[in-house]
Amino acid sequence: KGINILLYGKPGTGKTELAKTLIKELNADGYEIIDSKRTKVVGNYLDTDLKNIDFATARQILRNTENSIILYDEAEDFFRTSSLKNIPTKTGINYLLEDNINPVIWTANSLSDLENSFIRRFSYVCNVEYMPKAIYKKTFNKLVKEYHIKANDMLFEFCFLNKVSIGIIKKAFENSNLSKNNKIENIFEDVKNTIK
């Protein structure tokens, strides 16, 4: 009860992929709360309001399940102060962090939208500057498999040594799949071009 993990760091460092890998390693069922493709304003609700409604719904549905973890990507949307009535009050956020039934992994690009009173209520806070090599390789290999890329150790080492973010690798693999250029030399070029 009240387990919250906060992974924060610059965009593209692999926070979301790290969270998904952690959920998988724990053999848990993961439920991701992400921005939808809805328009910015729907009726009287902003898109972030709808995201928070999705979060509240997931918490309610999963409250009696075991081995379920919620992943709230881009946590700034939740913690950002707003005058809209669907954004929880400070007291409400503190209560949620202390008494949530299912563990929640939150990702954020910075801590600037989180008050110290929120941060101290997290079970674990981790600045994801760059993934350790073993986790980076596991995440890299997951993307290779997901995008049906013909990669080798040389591509992995190139990406790791040049600190190519998981987000950039994912984008390069998507581009390779779109162009059907799955040859290793083309993927190298896609990664290099995506970095620029």
Structural notes for this entry:
48% of the residues lie in helices and 14% in strands. The chain contains 9 helices and 7 strands; from the N terminus they run E-H-E-E-E-H-E-H-H-E-H-E-H-H-H-H. A hairpin with a 2-residue loop joins strand 3 and strand 4. It has a 5-stranded parallel sheet with strand order 2-5-6-1-7, sandwiched between helices. The longest helix is centred in the N-terminal third of the chain and has 16 residues. Helix 6 runs parallel beside helix 8 and helix 8 crosses helix 9. It is α/β, with parallel strands linked by helices and 196 residues long. The chain starts with a strand and ends with a helix. About 5% of the residues have low confidence.
Beginning-to-end CA distance, first to last residue:
44 Å
Order of adjacent strands in the largest pleated sheet: 2-5-6-1-7
Derived from helix and strand composition plus strand pairing, the structural class reads alpha/beta
Please write the string of helix (H) and strand (E) elements. EHEEEHEHHEHEHHHH
Give me the secondary-structure topology.
Elements: E1 4-8, H1 15-25, E2 29-33, E3 41-42, E4 45-46, H2 47-62, E5 68-72, H3 76-79, H4 90-99, E6 104-108, H5 116-119, E7 124-127, H6 133-146, H7 153-161, H8 166-179, H9 184-195
Parallel strand pairs: 1-6, 1-7, 2-5, 5-6
Antiparallel strand pairs: 3-4
Helix pairs in contact: 6-8, 8-9
